[in-house]
Specification:
Largest sheet: 5 strands, antiparallel
Distance between the termini: 15 Å
Low-confidence stretches: 151-170
Helix content: 10-25%
Number of strands: 5
Radius of gyration: 17 Å
Number of helices: 4
Number of domains: 1
Order of helices and strands: HEEHHEEEH
Shape: elongated
Structural class: alpha+beta
Strand content: 25-35%
Bound molecules: zinc ion
Mean pLDDT: 85
Length: about 170
């Protein structure tokens, strides 16, 4: 996902697809996270992620349309999301040149002296109080409105609704 949208969604914990609020959508103040997992392992306690949360209908759309997720994913209801740091490009404090690294982005925790020299591309958080969930089961229980659709809860989703049609947040 686009770096600016990622940072905005992660800072305010907005749905990464429709940009709507994810707060209060699920019982117990929990939020739905979907991460790529080729091995299909559950989301671990304190797992780091650069993926912002999703509202349930957008999570289902993502599973349908995202080939990466189709190859393997894991979903969890998360009680607490804590800020961890950033993923970005680290520069040398004296030469201001980019420090070469094996990975395209380096993970830098908040509080690190390197943070001042890092051009952040993504905000990273850690996930706590994680309960594995099946997105298809979760979404089958209700006709969820998308986060962006305040009223109309319980209304069936329009058949033609697609990923990306509601990127109106600015
Ligand atoms: Zn959404």
């Amino acid at each position: 996902m686009h770096a600016l949208r990622q940072r905005r969604a992660m800072k305010r914990l907005l749905c990464q697809v429709c940009g709507g609020v994810t707060e209060g959508r699920l019982p117990g103040g929990r939020r739905l996270f979907l991460v790529r997992a080729v091995e299909g392992h559950p989301v671990g306690e304190g797992e780091r992620t650069a993926s912002p949360p999703l509202c349930p209908p957008c999570a289902l759309d993502s599973l349908r349309h995202c080939p990466h997720l189709r190859r393997g994913h894991t979903a969890a209801l998360v009680e607490e999301v804590r800020p961890w740091g950033v993923a970005g490009l680290v520069h040398h404090p004296r030469t201001l040149r980019r420090i070469p690294t094996p990975e395209p982005l380096t993970l830098v925790p908040y509080g690190s002296p390197l943070l001042d020299w890092t051009l952040a591309a993504r905000i990273m958080t850690t996930l706590h109080g994680c309960t594995p969930v099946d997105v298809r089961e979760l979404t089958a229980r209700h006709a969820w409105p998308r986060s962006g659709e305040g009223e109309g809860a319980g209304r069936p989703l329009p058949a033609a609704s697609k990923h990306g049609t509601r990127r109106h947040q600015s």
